[in-house]
Write a structure and sequence with these properties.
heterodimer, A: 774 residues, alpha+beta, Aldehyde Oxidoreductase, domain 3, Aldehyde Oxidoreductase, domain 4, seven-stranded mixed sheet, 19 helices, globular, B: 336 residues, Uridine Diphospho-n-acetylenolpyruvylglucosamine Reductase, domain 2, Uridine Diphospho-n-acetylenolpyruvylglucosamine Reductase, domain 3, Enolase-like, domain 1, four-stranded antiparallel sheet, 13 strands, binds flavin-adenine dinucleotide
Chain lengths: 774, 336
Amino acid sequence: MRRPDGPAKVHGRFRYVGDLQVPGMLHARTLRSPHPRARIRHLDTAAARRVPGVAVLVTAADVPGLATYGLIVADQPVFGGVRGEVRYAGEPVAAVAAVDARAARHALAAIEVDYEPLPPVTDPRRALAADTPTLHPNGNLFREIDIRHGEDGVHGPVVVEDDYAIGMQDQAFLAPEAAVAIPAADGGIDLLVATQWLHSDREQIAACLALPEQLVRLTLAGVGGAFGGREDITVQIHAALLARAAGAPVRIAYDRVESFLGHPHRHPARMRLRHTATHDGELVSVTARVLLDGGAYASSSPAVLANAITHAAGPYRVPHARLHGLVVRTNNPPCGAMRGFGVPQVTIGHEAQMDRLADALGLDPVGLRVRNALQPGDVLPTGQVLGGPLPARELITLVAARPLPPPAKHDPTGLSLPGGLPAMAEPSRVRRGIGYALAYKNLLFSEGVDDASTARVRLALAADGTPHAQVHSACAEVGQGFVTIAAQIARTELGIDQIELLPADTAVASAGSTSASRQTWMSGGAVRGACAAVVDRLLARVARAAGLPGPVVETARRSLTITGGQIVGAEVGLRMSVADALAMGPVEAEYTFHHRRTTALGAAGQGDPHVAFAAAAHRAVVDVDLDLGLVRVVSMALAQDCGTVLNPLALRGQVEGGTAQGLGLAVMEELVTDAGRVVNPTFHDYLIPTAADVPDLDFVAVTEPQPDAPYGVKGVGEAPTCTATPAIIAAIRAAVGRDLRRVPVRPHHLVGPPDADPPDADAASGGPFGEGPS
Amino acid sequence: MHWSASGMLRPSTVGEAVEMLSAARAAGLEAALLGGGTDLVPALRAGQRQVQTIIGLRRVLELRVRGAGADRLTIGAGVTYTDLVGWSLSPGLARAARVVGSAQIRNTGTVGGALGSARPASDLLTFLTAADAEVLTVSPRGPRRQPLARFLAARPEPDALVTAVRLARPGGPATYLKIGGRQAAYPAEVSCAVVVDRVRHTLACAVGGIGRQPVRMVEAEAYAQAAVDWATGTVSSAAAARFADLVTEATQALTPTLPVGPHGSARYRIHAAGVLAGRAFARCLNPAIARPALAATLLPAAPHSDFLRPDTFGPDTPHADPATPHVDGTGPQGAR
Ligand SMILES: Cc1cc2nc3c(=O)[nH]c(=O)nc-3n(C[C@H](O)[C@H](O)[C@H](O)COP(=O)(O)OP(=O)(O)OC[C@H]3O[C@@H](n4cnc5c(N)ncnc54)[C@H](O)[C@@H]3O)c2cc1C
């Protein structure tokens, strides 16, 4: 089944939220702090309010409710305050709505802000130092987790230890942030937004507006990608404040530069990893110290750290582990959710370590992984017993057996060589490398959270007399494919063809976030449950109408089945069309799906934190121009643990996209900051892979059903992002014979002096972690 | 579009365009010439430039012409990169145009826009610097012709319109190499053009992306002049290495330099300039490395022709009279 929005997107006809027009609508723009840390002494908006065409202007003083918001902790001001500090370059200070965007921009230029710049804290290693100022009333530490597993001080004779650093990746989604806010006659507000989680937005907006939640109504509007970058509030509260102040609809929109500044990014990470093993390659211990830079505000940092640190040893059996992680506040841009949610960073580290351990042992990197790969029943460093299935061993074996691409062909144009046509590499100076990576990634929300999803299904007769079902879920479709999955499930469960997926909005209970690889499982489960309840009600009605005995009516499913639009009870001698059954009136049901309960991390980081896992293994083949250090990824093979496949085309889209995004992190994507300011917030300077950079994916799905998930599904979007990056780094490492401890890998790391890739430029002064608790 | 509230003027001759430019200035209005708009439109949208008048050049047919004289090529300011990609009269220029941006940018971006923007690492400007190009402008003070390097170094004349660039007909192989952040569609981080003239026994080399404008590598050029066996047009492999070293030395000594890009390293940039120069040099001159298809090959002596018919017109543009078609015997693409 194909996506209903596919053709419109391909033909450029799809209406993203930024394209929406409402009669009488005003255009809003946001003023942002140019300073990473400053006190606002004075904010004068008088001149800006007088700019022709300006309708309203709002600042911190105009927030009627809670002054701050946040996904987990409400620590982020709606606007940088006059009394408080601005804490990152790009923090909103004011917003203006005007008759057009040009007038709004003129007004922004006319706002006078008197900043008193303060020295920013931009080195996360210094965030907890005694002489570092406290940047926020909540302090500079977002979270610390210290996992102790097995015995302290037990190590193997073969030791590999090093530092790794990963830069800040951006979600770089297609359609920049936008929303339309429309004030309603009942004193409430209606919002059309591109978001990942309508109900979380609603809760935060309502709190800041001091409105009861039911007066804040959200409807999902055309989303152009998310990848975690739309989990946090950006434009929503500003748009609502402006629309209420103006008494008119407001469309707020970011341009590309603002989009790069406006949403949280992937956490930059530094880590020191120490792996020890026996001489024959059995892991004995892993010691990890992981430091994530959370930037100015909490966003989802506490949860990202939990993911990073619980996965820091990778999908391997480790008898003894000490995994210590910190996520700290700095004056860098806020970081939060991005595809993989903390796991890609640690995977880069643990997979580098596995390769270097294989080198130290003289073993094959695939063999070492096979030997140590987790199996169901193994105990993880948190003490959690790994449920099944997790075919990690099978995946790495499978991917290693895929046919290799042919050697570089003689290509006079240079098109298929590193650097492409423009660089025209010299074929004799191109060397090939092969690398592998294996990872696992948790599915769904962790640590005791009950992130339930609700769906409502209504089965009725359409005007033409045919049965027609409406599925209502607040699940945000951000490209993951719920639009097809929900319809497929309803069709399967209800045995009819006409399914209508109602717009995702807050008129139905929460579906939770479109993140954590969770929607097919959670909201798919909710739709399935609601459909099953509808069927039960319909069958009971039919049984009752047919005068069948009470016990049969109560368990109608035992004697009646619904297929192909017919209700059939062979044993009870009943046959009726669904249409006839619905002539007695529509049937409706709501269902809330819960996953199995997990527990919080307790003392020594022990618990049962994760619902389930999915694994993936990539093999990358790269060519490197030895003179210029340019890299071309020649081939990517992926074997992935997918559970039951519901939509093969959608699966393919997810794994190809995940691979491309991992490739981007490996060799090009990094938001660079200089003293806290992003220096490359454009697609000229923040390059993402194009079709010329991403090879066709050789993909094998391993489909062992997940027992506690609907139909045995697993989430598939995140695992391949985790493995693509380290597999490519490993292949480059194999081609050039350098350690490569800084990601993304740049050409100058490959051809400069051998120490050109220190995880930290100033590693000599204080190591990768500097001062802080240990 | 927000900026279209302001006036959009559409002259149909160079004279009209220059008059409109002066009139706007006399009225105290900020005016901008519009070529393909690949630089101007994003700058207007982002509010980096604010203008009251836009003078669209698309209908100025005389700007859209490419021509070949006995020993010179003239390229109108309205010629697009795509027009140049297929042009057999200057394979080096065609190659430089081919590696600009994406197909969309090449279809839209113009030679005049490249000169108007004068981006320091512009692919076209780096190639034209090696090709000793001249820039033709027209202002209320009349027409003017000046070397590209001088045009780039001088402050832009706000009332002047670039009408064309002029360069010598190629007298030997030429190539252009660049590197950046990915496989295709990237701005040059470092680039190098080499233009060989086997008739006059000269070799020119320009490096882009390091200086504030493309820079000629004069020591390396002088070395090459002496090292090339001009009878065969070849050099030894050792000569390519020496040439590369001289370029590295020259780029190292260069001041002022462009700031290094967000992901770059100053040391790498200099290293890469040397590697690219050595490669470009070898591709043009060393048969052991340069396979025929790789280097832009020496052209057959082309018969003389005047202005050629521009090969692309927008939907709103009347077709010009076809000028004398050019025949140079290089196949179906010959005259395009
Ligand atoms: C996505 C993207 C990728 C790009 N990639 C590359 C690349 O790989 N390599 C590269 O070199 N460039 C690249 N560029 C830059 C750009 O395409 C070139 O600089 C192009 O040549 C500009 O031409 P234009 O006709 O679009 O100019 P316009 O945008 O129309 O004008 C640019 C400037 O020149 C002025 N101008 C226009 N015509 C004239 C004239 N006749 N006389 C005087 N002034 C004039 C305008 O007023 C304006 O100031 C890229 C741009 C984009 C948007």
